[in-house]
Amino acid sequence: MSHSIGLYLHIPFCRRKCAYCDFFSGVGTQADFDVYTRELTEKLHYWGQQAWEPVGSVYLGGGTPSVLGTKRLCALLDAVKNDFSVDKNAEITLEVNPESGKALDFDALRQTGFNRVSVGMQSAIAREINILGRIHTPEEAAYTVKKAQAADFDNTSLDLMMGIPLQTKDSLRQSINFCADCGVRHISSYILKIEEGTPFYSNRELLNLPDEDEQAELYLFAVDYLNRLGYAQYEISNFAQPGFESRHNTLYWHCGEYIGIGPAAYSFYHGKRFHYARSMQAFCDNLLTADGSGGDSEEYIMLALRLCEGLVFADYEQRFGQPFPALLHKKIEKYAKLGLMEADGQHACFTPKGFLVSNAILADLI
Ligand code: SF4
Q: What is the tens place of the pLDDT at every residue in 264-289?
């Protein structure tokens, strides 16, 4: 029995660029969408001939996949199913943004095989959405979720952001309540990062950004409040009702293999990491850059510790054929005493407080 892999398709188009975003995406025309859909279909065919493993999850992300419209999205999933051996129970996610997602034909998408919809909202407070430079209302996000649910998408997710300028604990609580009232099964909640080269970066002094302590307070509040509403934290930034954890993303954190197709898409396949450049032309020319071998013990530890289940020592030992290093056990004990990690004889994981400083701890561990 072979292990299954994940498949990620990057859709590098958005209606408008958000002020904080450094993903590879830009505004496109209908003609651009047609050309890109054809290009992606060709690449799918190419990769389908290389990959013999069953595909356990497919994820169309971006950018904003919903800008392509129902017909192109269904055509892409049909191409995936023609070229790969997709598991009968595969998780097939479509990322949508409210401004374009609300016009999709979710019945057709569901019939073609999509079974999970992730809606990018970031906040349910109109003022915060505007500050982020996004072009939808919270009502459009709720409408999009309802429309997907009415088309038999039981597995829906909403994205939130923490640390938005002028955001308060109370406004974050309102956003979380809004998501819960929409009846989504899954909520992602990320701390805003100010990336170089974005308008947010240029204007960072003027933005009224929360400082680190305020950010930490928002994060710890969200973890606690989401848990109380039945969305258990399962990863540093992800929360779900039981059984609705994202299988595709969990594959990344378990150091599983996947093929990413699209400009700036990353892959880990047959033990090698590689990626397409951040350029449409380079993608069309099939230019791949090798990132070396992947899945070594350091990477494994780093990824596993993103998950709340953490690092299971027996899994580590089985994978690498050697005991978990004694020095690391000692260091983990030290952080456990500080309330930043938890550890027993079987596993180790970060506490919510530990997640906030996980980069520094990981730098010490590995
Ligand atoms: S919609 Fe998403 S990918 Fe597009 S610009 Fe905004 S944050 Fe970036």
A: 999 999 999 999 999 999 999 999 99
Q: What is the DSSP letter of 271?
A: T
Encoded amino acid at 272, one letter: K
Omega into 163 within 30° of 0, i.e. cis? no
Please identify, among 252, 282, 313, the residue that sits at the C-terminal boundary of a domain.
252
For the Cβ of 97 lying below 6 angstroms from any atom of ligand 1, the answer is yes
Q: Does the beta carbon of 122 lie inside 6 Å of ligand 1? A: no
How close is the Cα of 14 to the center of ligand 1, in Å? 6
CA–centroid distance, residue 50 to ligand 1 (Å): 31
Long-range contacts, stretch 169-176, CB < 8 angstroms, 24+ apart: 169/217, 169/218, 169/221, 171/123, 171/125, 171/128, 172/218, 172/221, 172/222, 173/221, 173/225, 174/124, 174/125, 175/123, 175/124, 175/125, 175/128, 176/222, 176/225, 176/226, 176/229
Q: Is 143 exposed, middle or buried (0-12, 13-18, 19+ CB in 10 A)?
A: middle
What CATH number does the domain containing 333 carry? 1.10.10.920
- Give the pLDDT confidence of 55-78 residue by residue, as tens digits: 999 999 999 999 999 999 999 999
Q: How far apart are CA 345 and CA 190, in angstroms?
A: 31
CA–CA separation, 359 vs 366, rounded Å?
11
- Asked whether 19 lines ligand 1 (CB < 6 A), one says no
The number of distinct structural domains making up the chain is: 2
Cα–Cα dist 266/278, whole Å:
11
Q: How many angstroms does the Cα of residue 180 sit away from the middle of ligand 1?
A: 23
- The alpha carbons of the chain give a radius of gyration, in whole angstroms, of 20
Q: pLDDT band at residue 194, thresholds of 50, 70 and 90? A: very high
The DSSP code sequence of 43-82 is HHHHHHHH--SPEEEEEEEES-GGGGHHHHHHHHHHHHHH
Domain that includes residue 247, residue range: 5-252
CA distances from 49 to 73, 129, 276, 328 (A): 21, 43, 18, 42
Check residue 345 and report its DSSP letter.
S
